[in-house]
Amino acid sequence: MKDIHNIVILTGAGVSAESGIDTFRDGGGLWEQHRVEDVATPEAFARDPALVQRFYDMRRAAIQTKEPNAAHAALARLDAEWRGELLIVTQNVDDLHERAGAKRLLHMHGEHLKAWCTACDARSDWLGPLGEAPACPACGTSGHLRPDVVWFGEMPYHMEDIYRALNRTDLFVSIGTSGAVYPAAGFVREARAAGARTLELNMEPSQGSHWFDEAHHGPATALVPGWVAEMLS
């Protein structure tokens, strides 16, 4: 690993699953008995904002009862001790990476614990419910706050920074992802095209597993600490 200086890590739902946070695609595409089309699209929010707000209020409350696991802790250790460049790109909208101590981190799909005001475009930390149309902390307007989460059909955040990192990286690691959701599913090919080595750590082969140079399958809490220890040895 002596020739590895820059690392980009993509994390998905499989990293947080062992903390008790349900993966998005559990139950044949249903998420807590709701279809994606009913709770995770701009059209759903326009059609039934009360349902969408209630759904995300429940998720926001649930996330605050969960704790980081050994995989989060190991990645935070790597972030703290890796002397080269490192970027953790997460598809997860929980804050478990941060609570474990990770600093070099981007949330490409937004964050449950933030609210976005569509009136003034401000993003604010938010721990409580949004269903009762509270006022925006930034502009004071009521009824324009929505979850700061990227829904299907919306553009993920930080894409320029992510692609810049992918084109500079020596090693791309995908952890706990399905390989089914783009653009994240295409990151491995972007990194390969730039000459990076690629590694998959996942419970089972992802849909894009054949694109990786190396793959190891099992629980994130078992695989990630061992890989981090190897990288730092």
TrEMBL record:
It is an enzyme of class 2 (transferase). Keywords: Cytoplasm, Metal-binding, NAD, Transferase, Zinc. It is found in: Cytoplasm. CDD domains: SIRT5_Af1_CobB. Its EC number is 2.3.1.286. Pfam families: SIR2. Residues 1-233 form the Deacetylase sirtuin-type domain. Substrate binds at residues 56, 59. It catalyses: N(6)-acetyl-L-lysyl-[protein] + NAD(+) + H2O = 2''-O-acetyl-ADP-D-ribose + nicotinamide + L-lysyl-[protein]; N(6)-succinyl-L-lysyl-[protein] + NAD(+) + H2O = 2''-O-succinyl-ADP-D-ribose + nicotinamide + L-lysyl-[protein]. Zn(2+) binds at residues 117, 120, 136, 139. Binds 1 zinc ion per subunit. Its main location: cytoplasm. 2 residues (Tyr-56 and Arg-59) present in a large hydrophobic pocket are probably involved in substrate specificity. They are important for desuccinylation activity, but dispensable for deacetylation activity. This is NAD-dependent protein deacylase. The gene is cobB.
